[in-house]
Structures are given as structure tokens and as C-alpha cells.
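Field reference: sequence -> structure
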Amino acid sequence: MGNSIRVFSGNLWWGKADPDGLIDLIRRHAVDVFAAQELGFETADAISSELPFGRLEPSRTSLGMGIALRRPARYSQIPLRHRPARRVVLEPAEWEGLSRPLDLVNVHIQAPHTVRPFPSLFVRRRQMDGLEQFFAENPSNARAVVGDYNATPIWPVYRRMALLFSDGAIQSAQRDGRPVARTWGPTADSPRLLRIDHAMVRGLEVENFQVVDIPGSDHSGIVFDCSPSVLPER
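Structure field:
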């Protein structure tokens, strides 16, 4: 897929992911866009050393997030209860080969088992309400929503998103004739038990979707190539 954008999304486990491992990952996979959740200060420094544009907002808690970029793009936050989403709009003028703007949103949906803020299920519903309202008020014909959804495909958060978007992992796996892989385990070295990190897309073609190790994190990352689909003639 020529002139595509390579996107990586990963939860860095309260910033405990290995900084040098992240630099190697970015170089090895030639990442253009890095969407980070649970971003710490050392991991932010490592990522920005390779991808200097965008904005990273690290924290010593699980609230650190950001999107790092190889080239410039407009960056903003989407207000959501407890934890805002982050958004970039990649313009063809800065990103050679794009046929139209690509809207990418990075989310970290509240985990269902947490006690702060309480009740977590109410927080999750309100976050989804906010996302759906934003998408309705800000339509895009080339959008990806990546991140840690804290939801497998059978859970309500995923099902609500699937009403609006296609699952990029499934789109790519069906084309390649292979299964999708799980992304989360209870420790950095444990087997991955659940698929809770997703790339939901609309108006984009997704190829080369992979689940890759993030050294030092309880999540595996997702990396994929995407480019805007050809719009139907009117």
C-alpha cells in the first residue's frame, strides 16, 4: 500500500515500559505515528527523540497520554470524563501521499475494575457518550480511533464503537487469512489473555496489522499501515 501512514498504539504500563526498547521498536517498525497510553516521563523522552512532532503529556499516574509524530499535524484534546482523548489531524500538505486529511484519535477508556473514579462503569458510559457526541459533531471520512479500550469484542464499549467503525485488526486478518491476536496479560512476561487494544477505522484501508511486544509493559502494541480509501464517485 503506497504512501500509507504507519501507526503504533501502546499502553506503557504507568511508564514502566523500557525506554531503549521503545526507541528500537520505533526504528524497527519505521513508525510515523505513536499513540501512547499510560505514558511516563522517561518513555516520553525516548519516544520524542525519534518522533519530535505532536505532543506528549506524561504523568506519574495512569493518566499520561499523547501522540508523537514524524511530521507536523494539528493536535488537540477531546474532553471526556476523567481522561480526555487526544487527537491529531494529518494534512496532505505535511504528509506526502495522503489524498485527504486523516483524523486519528487516541483513547484510554477507564478500566471496568477500577475504584477511582467510582463507579467505573458509569465513567466508561460517559466516556463513550462523549466520544459519540464528538464524532457526530465532527464528521470525518478518514478516521482511526486507536488505544486501550479496556474492552474485548464482546463488551459494550467495543460494540458501541463497532456500530460506527470497522475493526482494523479484523479487516487486515480477513484479507490475510489469519486470526487476530490478543494484546493484554497481567504481567510484562505473561501470555496475552485478552484483546483490549484496538484500531477502529472508517474511510481507511488497513494492511500489515501486527501485535508486537512492548518491552516492560503488560500490553502488547498494535502497529499497522493505513491510507484513506477511495471515495465513491458522486
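Note: The radius of gyration is 16 Å.
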